[in-house]
Amino acid sequence: MECCKAIILKKNNYSDTQTIIHAYSLEKGYLSLISPSFFFKRKKHPVHLMQISEIEYSGNEKARLQKLHTISPLLNLPDLYFDIVKMNILLLWGEVLHLLLKNETKNEELFEFITHSVEYLNSATQGIGNFNLLFLYRLAGLVGYRINTASWREGYVFNINDGNFCPADNQPACISGPNTAMAIYKLCTCAVHEVKDIPLNQAARNILLDIIFLFYSTHLNINFNIKSIQVIREIFQE
C-alpha cells in the first residue's frame, strides 16, 4: 500500500461499476488509478475535479493503472463547487493538466503552484477571468517552456515560436500585437492580487486564451480540442 498527496485531474467511466481517476501527485507525479467496484457507492469517498486529496493505492510501477483504495479530501474548498464560473475554470484546468502532465514525474514546484492556484480560486471574488489566464501562462514555465519576460520592452510583440518578446518590425511567424504582448508580460510578472487590475475585456481574454493554447500546441504538439475552452469564452462576457 502506498499513500500520496494528489490533485484530481479527470475521471472516466471504465465500466458500470468502476472509474479511472487521473491525478497529479506530489510524491510520484502523474498517476492513473482504477477504483474497486464498490468505491463510489460509499458516500465517504467524494471525488471532485481539482480536489486536493490523500490517496491510498496498491503501487505497481509496471502497471498502467494503479489499484485505488481510498481518497480523502485534504482541503475544504466550498466556494469552488457551488459557483458555476469557478467550476468551469476547474474543468478547463483539469483537461489542460491531464493533457500536459501525462508524462510528468515528481515536480514539487509544479504541485505547489497548482495547489495554491486552486486555493486562491476558491477564495477569489474579483478578477477570476484574469486569474484563469495568469494560471495558464505561468504554468508554461513549470512544464519546461517559460516565457522570457526579461525580453519585453514597450512596443514589443510576442513570438510564440521561442517565447521571447521582440521588436514589432522584426516579423517572425505566430506573433501577437504590442498591446497583447504587454498583457502577456503583466500576466507573467504581476503579483497575484494585482491580476484583477489588468484591463482586459472579453475580446482581449479570448485572444490571450488562443495565444496560450497555440503556444502549448507549438511546443508540445498537443491539440487542445477542449469544449470547456469555448465555455470559458462565453462565461466572461462583459
Secondary-structure blueprint:
Layout lengths: L1 E12 L5 E7 L3 E6 L17 E7 L7 E8 L10 H17 L7 H16 L4 H15 L14 E3 L4 E3 L11 H12 L12 H19 L6 H9 L3
Parallel strand pairs: 3-5
Antiparallel strand pairs: 1-2, 1-4, 2-3, 4-5, 6-7
Helix pairs in contact: 1-6, 2-3, 3-5
Descriptive keywords:
6 helices, single chain, 238 residues, alpha+beta, two-stranded antiparallel sheet
Biggest β-sheet description: 5 strands, mixed, barrel
* Total DSSP E strands: 7
Strand content: 15-25%
Order of helices and strands: EEEEEHHHEEHHH
Low-pLDDT residue spans:
none
Helix content: 25-40%
Q: Enumerate how many helices there are, as a single number.
A: 6
Look at the structure and give the mean pLDDT.
88
User: Distance between termini?
Assistant: 50 Å
Biggest sheet, spatial arrangement of strands: 1-2-3-5-4
The shape, in one word, is: globular
Radius of gyration over C-alpha positions, nearest whole angstrom: 19 Å
Structural class: alpha+beta
